[in-house]
Amino acid sequence: MKWVFVLCAMVALSECLVQIPLEKGKTAREFLEEQGLWEDYRQKYPYNPISKFDQRFAVAGEPMTNDADLAYYGVISIGTPPQSFKVIFDTGSSNLWVPSVYCNSPACNNHKRFNPSTSSTYKYNGTPLNIQYGTGSMNGFLAYDTVTVGGLTVTNQIIGLSKSEAPFMQYMRADGILGLAYPRLSASGATPVFDNMMKEDLVSQDLFSVYLSSNSEQGSVVTFGGIDSNHYYGSITWIPLSNELYWQITVDSVTVNGQVVACNGGCQAIVDTGTSMIVGPQSSISSINSYVGASSQNGNSVVNCNNIGQMPDVTFHIHGQEFTLPASAYVRQSQYSGCRTGFSGGGDSLWILGDVFIRHYFAVFSRAQNMVGLARAR
Q1: pLDDT tens for each residue of 179-191
Q2: Same structural domain for residues 83 and 40?
Q3: Are residues 120 and 258 in the same domain?
């Protein structure tokens, strides 16, 4: 299967790493900028990343946000014979859902749609599923079918099938979402895919890891059942979770040039592959952006592209270790909107360490130890 790499140790063939390549495709924002539609889109569907982690929806639904900068998608299949879908492997949610043939929203019409009638392993459940977005929602129902992720086949996996989707989804490259957070977060009590992998002994270790390539369209992977040492330098720092709902950890402080500029006295952060930026309270993000020399323009924190080499590092102090981001890691360059930082404001206290952070720090998510492991990405 061309989408899967299986790496096995010579001493024990059972110790296999199942790796699912992630495509780093054109983002919705890039597509809209090319069409000259971005400003209108941004005003109509404001970016609200923290709504995804609103505790009011933590168990009753699966809040998502219209993150137009998400770039990484992997391919899974559902049904017998298999129907393929591009999904975001999202450590900030727990449900698996894809569009269905019963959906006629514009967002469904330009994405792959699952057809239950052609799958011999499909079982109808019918429980309603509602996923709240920052602006709009996905409405659908639950069903069961065989799901294949890499070489791992999960039978009787509960899935969400959409019947309507928020308009902004039509610009996203991914068809749906595969959630990798804890089952307590799952809407309608649906068992997450990775929980079934563990239950069915499909993985040799109860963990998965994520490597996001910075520059190339290829090279990014999600690895189930182990850790590929080719993707990081040095040793892994293991950080205990502060909340076993999301992959939530405690950050001690954020500094620039040795000075605390945010998170003074500690704060809570979620390591989230389903958020493109680093998100924090507006006052804290404004402080960081000010210290690195960014100015606010049309909702972006803009910097001079010629100054990137002279801009300061931003350091996250976590569990006694320093996780430093150079400007080359936190500044993103676009031919349409110039250079802007990857720090975005939102919410009251919670932080999100999204793809800007994970591109620089290889991340391991251990359900066996309830810890996140971080190491400098190669």
Answers
A1: 999 999 888 888 9
A2: yes
A3: no
